[in-house]
Amino acid sequence: MLTKRFFKTKDEAEVTFEFSHPQAKKVELVAEFTGWEPVTMKFNKKERAFKSKHRLPTDKQFHFRYLIDGEQWDNDHKADAYVTNSFGTQNSVVNTQKIAM
């Protein structure tokens, strides 16, 4: 699940990536904005989910995936979009475009 918070005075969004997997001991966020290097997500015991917050530039799209226990890939089931990658699977997409209310 993705949660976004936009700032009035900054051209960035704080995006919280949240992923639940009952048997996972470790979940890593692997994304364009991390240079495709895995970033370990923190486990929130109360919510029983792995979380990671990142500040990203607004009005852009970023591809990402989750790596479970260093061997299984999965997507965010609430991502903004999905695109086919060069491995024949799909990447999740987070869109940081501000939506006027």
Automatic annotation (TrEMBL):
Superkingdom: Bacteria
Membrane-spanning parts: none
Alphabetical list of CDD domains matching this protein: E_set_Isoamylase_like_N
Range of residues in the leader sequence: none
Domain AMP-activated protein kinase glycogen-binding: 15-98
The name this protein goes by in its record: 1,4-alpha-glucan branching protein
Organism the protein comes from: Pseudoalteromonas citrea
